[in-house]
Design a protein that fits this description.
globular, two-stranded antiparallel sheet, mainly alpha, 4 strands
Length: 298
């Protein structure tokens, strides 16, 4: 493999890994607070892409305004989903809330099929995201592939500042450590949980919009495979750990692209790489690469 080819694959891997990391953060935030796997996260990702699509094509908004509307409405939807599907079951057995999450995922996919239609739709890509940038003699990258890692880095920095430097972040850490004790310390647990779901949903929406810009085709099940992969990325990095989610996403993206680059005949099996990597990591370190061993409370 020539050096220019390696750089080309490296840029693609960084872009895809950053996209996985962005979505995986939402998974790991919700788990860190409630010990809940939000299986509807991939469908919230899908919803963000569709709202941006209709805001631009149906309501003729400028692309930046349509994207902002998509983030806001998706965040509100995530908060509503938590109140309707998860909050009533918060003190029920874990299996009940997990079943509710799976049910919410299937409901969203089927509602999207009824409302948006099952036929794939082409996402309108603004010129600013579709420019070809030359990085040397033989390396060409579409501008959206450069924007995604930068955006992920900025959002990660902002999120870490919120968690470690604000009162809301302190409350989030307290709730993630011990929900009952946090309630005794006069922390509004419901407010913190809603905030976490809102932020996680906004991150999923950003991921959905960026994914639609990079792979400009929408369909009601578009969030299933990326959602599973990003859940795997969160587990690989150590679910509940934000830095671990980013590490897992980047690692997954790099392995997926580089294995295909080295062995093009395995292109049809690229989705299987995530599951193979998950099994290997869990066999070696069950808590994930940056996770800590914890005793499960029953």
């Amino acid at each position: 493999m020539a050096f220019d080819q390696f750089l080309q694959y490296l840029s693609n891997a960084l872009s895809l890994g950053s996209l996985y990391a962005l979505i995986a953060i939402g998974y790991t935030m919700v788990y860190g607070i409630l010990r809940l796997i939000n299986f509807a996260h991939g469908d919230i990702f899908m919803l963000g892409g569709y709202i941006a699509f209709y805001a631009v094509t149906l309501f003729f908004m400028p692309w930046w305004a349509g994207f902002i509307v998509a983030l806001g409405l998706t965040g509100i939807f995530g908060v509503g989903l938590e109140r309707a599907a998860y909050r009533p079951l918060r003190h029920s057995p874990r299996i009940s809330i997990m079943i509710s999450a799976i049910g919410a995922s299937f409901l969203m996919q089927n509602l999207a099929t009824v409302i948006f239609g099952g036929r794939p739709k082409g996402f309108p890509v603004p010129d600013i995201f579709n420019r070809v940038v030359k990085l040397g003699e033989g390396v060409s990258v579409v501008s959206v592939s450069l924007i995604i890692p930068i955006l992920t880095g900025v959002l990660l920095t902002v999120l870490l500042l919120i968690i470690h430097k604000t009162k809301t972040g302190m409350a989030m850490r307290a709730v993630s450590t011990d929900l009952a004790a946090a309630r005794l310390m006069a922390i509004d647990v419901n407010k913190i949980v809603s905030f976490t779901f809102g932020v996680g949903s906004v991150l999923a929406a950003i991921g959905g919009v960026m994914w639609s810009l990079k792979y400009p085709q929408l369909n009601p099940t578009m969030g299933v495979i990326p959602g599973l992969k990003c859940f795997i990325a969160a587990v690989i990095g150590g679910i509940g750990n934000i830095a671990g989610a980013v590490l897992g996403g980047l690692l997954l993206g790099f392995i997926e692209i580089m294995v295909i680059a080295a062995l093009p005949t395995l292109t049809g099996y690229r989705d299987a790489f995530a599951f193979v990597l998950l099994i290997i990591v869990l066999l070696v370190k069950p808590s994930g690469l940056l996770g800590r061993n914890q005793i499960e409370k029953v």
